[in-house]
Amino acid sequence: MRILVTSDAWHPQVNGVVRTYERLAIELAALGVEMSVLAPHEFRTLPCPTYPEIRLALPDLGRIAERFDAVKPDAVHIATEGPIGWMARRYCLSRRIRFTTSFHTRFPEYLGQRFAIPQSWTLALLRRFHNAGAGLMVATPSLSRELEGHGFERVLPWTRGVDTRLFRPRPVRLFGEETVFLYVGRIAAEKNIAGFLDLDLPGRKVVVGSGPQLEELKARYPNVLFAGKRTGEELAACYASADVFVFPSRTDTFGIVLLEAMASGLPVAALPVCGPRDVVTEGVTGILSEDLRSAALAARALDRETVRAKAGEYSWEYAARLFLANITGACLNGEAHAPAARKLARPAKAVVRPR
Questions:
Q1: pLDDT, tens digit (0-9, with 9 covering 90-100), for 292-306
Q2: Which residue in 48, 167, 186, 283 could disulfide with 54, CB within 3.0 to 4.6 Å?
Q3: Are the beta carbons of 112 and 119 closer than 8 angstroms?
Q4: Model pTM?
């Protein structure tokens, strides 16, 4: 079985979308499914306004047709609503190819904050985009209910996973012995990082990541340690070196970093919003409160072994099987190979694997 994923977010970007599909390709290969990605580097591109490190593909329907002809996909998934997503959508509709989509980014809120574009306008555009597909994959129940309330149709559940071999407790203290409050992620205005850095907390605040707001925040908060972008073992050691993971975002649709922190035995302090509300177990793996300072202080008392154990319930294999089940159910009904594909896709229950 061959699946073509089209995405406006891909390497060298480092974000939740890229990491999700990067790992999905590995897990699907283990299930005997070949996943190809149609990404910006295959097109002429321009820098995205206000995010010059993100490259936007210039329209090229001929290139879209070439890739579809080369891959000959059994199913198509449109991951993002950027130029590539719109081109792939147009191609599929013109040839009556069924496709699924996913909702990764809260563009109505982002565009409203940065450019004062009314959220109703962006919601209408996104609703048109996604409702043309055979199914819309959404990461959390809270977001599913919200989108359905806005008129989005055929919403399908999908989750994320975490590598508990990489992200685990370790006997390291990269940032010293005092209490460490950690943020990991993209350093951009929509992440509300200042909401964390403004808190009056004991010990040390550490920010790991890069992004367009990095230099501004470094200048505003000289006492904060900005550790830069970290990946792999270096990133895992950062989590293990902290005492509380602080997640100030109000707009993330899931937050893979929440799972990475929890797998490292790191309790979470976050706002009670979509994403944390679905991933964090209140009073067990983290504290959710509009008073983020109180949440951060209270999270220090949570049991780190219990935090890690709950993270083990999120398996990338399970996430891949659920993705495949959605694909086959939405796009392959009636196809000759659909029964075998659905058998492969049947989600096994996510289990905690001791490490």
A1: 999 999 999 999 999
A2: 48
A3: yes
A4: 0.86
180-311 is classed CATH 3.40.50.300: no
11-20, 65-74, 118-127, 167-176, range with the lowest pLDDT: 11-20
Taking alpha carbons only, the member of 310, 194, 208, 180 closest to residue 250 is: 194
Summarize pLDDT for 294-349 with one digit per residue, the tens.
999 999 999 999 999 999 999 999 999 999 999 999 988 646 555 555 566 666 55
**Phi and psi dihedrals of 112, rounded to 5?**
-65, -40
HSE toward the beta carbon, residue 319, CA cutoff 13 A:
24
**CATH number assigned to the domain with residue range 2-161+316-345, chosen from the 4 options 2.60.40.1260, 3.40.50.2000, 1.20.1280.290, 3.40.50.10190:** 3.40.50.2000
Using only C-alpha atoms, what is the Rg of the chain? 20
Q: Could you tell me which of 350, 312, 349, 319 has the C-alpha nearest to residue 164? A: 312
